[in-house]
Amino acid sequence: MPKPQLNKDTQVCISLAARPSNIGTRFHNYLYENLGLDFIYKAFTTTDIQAAVGGVRALGIRGCSVSMPFKEAVIPMMDEMDETAAAIQSVNTIVNTGGHLKAYNTDYGAVQDLIALHGLDSHHSVIIRGSGGMAKAVGAAFRDAGFTNGTLVARNAESGQKLAAELGYRWAPKPDALTANIIVNVTPLGMAGGADEQSVSFPAEAIAHAETVFDVVAFPSETPLIVAARAAGKSVITGAEVIALQAAKQFELYTGVRPSAEQVLEASVYSRQ
Q: How many domains does the chain divide into?
């Protein structure tokens, strides 16, 4: 089905992130094109999140993906919080219906889906590194999937201890000497374009002891942590898997159309070319 020509009625969706990539833009626009939907998607960054969200409302922008560091900052600007966002006080998706902004968190559902898809055992121990908005979603997904033996690692004692308490997990300021069956990086360590893009977010000992290594960093999908885990023969879950599932959920919220698993896979592959 051919996509309609760009026109005054074309619906606009955007993303807001400190370091935007092309992944979401290519993912959504690929599906718009292939499904013949009159939508267009563009990535942005901002130094004024309140003004940016005001623009979403004022300009009738249909949907807005929210990434670091804005996932908590946008909450006071919302008209309604879906339970997925309210439960963890973290937003990654805004849907604008006639000026009414409703917040969601599709990261939470994506991580829960991956826990099930990869057959992770809830009796296993887990270490989650990070304490920001995405860490809230990841931690809540593991907690709600029955993982009770957890440690949250965060150098920020205030946010780390607070999130650990909410999850019922232990807190540690550093991953040094800590081991678990599952280790999860939810920090920017290893992210392309950053000062720490070459950093491995967990020590070699933690990787050696783990059965599953999970890195939510989406770009690159083969982060230094994932590369090290593969070399050690570990089962891995990549950020590419997370972003594909959460973006598919966003796509459905924005358009009302649910892409097939095959279409999601095709869009994910295209987005990383």
A: 2
| Tens-place pLDDT, residues 194-249 | 888 899 999 999 999 999 999 999 888 899 999 999 999 999 999 999 989 999 99
CB 166 within 8 A of CB 190: no
249 labelled catalytic: no
Strands annotated E in 34-174: 39-44, 63-66, 80-81, 93-97, 100-104, 126-129, 150-153, 170-172
What is the reported pLDDT for 87?
Answer: 87
> Is 206 in the same domain as 248?
no
Which three-class secondary structure state does DSSP give residue 12?
strand
Neighbours of 250 (CB within 10 A): 27
For residue 146, tell me if it sits in a domain.
yes
Mean pLDDT of 110-133: 96
User: Which residue range forms the structural domain that includes residue 139?
Assistant: 108-237
CB distance 224 to 190 below 8 Å: yes
One of 71, 162, 234, 249 is an active-site residue; which one? 71
Six-digit token pair at 236?
Answer: 């891995």
Do residues 95 and 254 lie in contact, with contact meaning Cβ atoms separated by under 8 Å?
yes
Q: Which of 6, 38, 65, 58 has its CA nearest to residue 256? A: 38
